[in-house]
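We emphasize that the prediction below concerns an isolated chain of 239 residues; any contacts that depend on oligomerization or on bound cofactors are therefore not represented. The input was used exactly as deposited, without trimming of termini.
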Amino acid sequence: MENTQEVKVVSLPRIGEAAPEFKAVTTQGDINFPADYKGSWVILFSHPADFTPVCTSEFMTFATMEEQFAEANCKLVGLSVDGLYSHIAWLRTIKEKIEYKGMKNVEVKFPLIEDITMDVAKKYGMIQPGESNTKAVRAVFIIDPKGVIRTIIYYPLSLGRNFDELYRALIALQTADEFGVATPADWRPGDDVIISPAGSCGTAKDRMDGKEDGLDCKDWFFCTKKIDKEEVLKRVLKK
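Result of the prediction step, given as a token string:
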């Protein structure tokens, strides 16, 4: 007998594509995404459920770091498939009752999207049946000021995110855009950056002969350059 069972395909947005558009109700009022955030970087992230411990630790960390992200021209937007009143009650509980790693009286000021219909979560591939049909995984989308998806990271329900890495990735993306470079493994401001391979044999030879100022070439395809931490912070964080 022919198997006619329908296979459910999870649609995932891709890096380099425009962020899917949506309108939603949030704890900070209605939003039109990503239009309302034009000109700013955005981290759009999902969590499995309100009133859960891993999610609570994450929201406290994000809220504590919100000003740091804001200095990098980045706004935060959260989402789960819970309702608005659940969101409000949970965030109030966090502020009034939860203390974690020295963080207490933490007020979450960035918007948290109500998505009981799962419409937004499905648009962004946050519902992954292999993990859960009823909860969003811990998805992270870094979206640039033009509304283009630049980074996508997914974590399972059981794994809390590394927020130092999320911030590092944001600054690395901005540095790559600002200076026209790439960033190597574990890059942080002040570390050497990667210069793309030369486009012509002549230029490649100049590089290897040390005729391009500031470059340290180990081979024609692997050249680095020093950019001072202060210069990165000045141009990326506008300090």
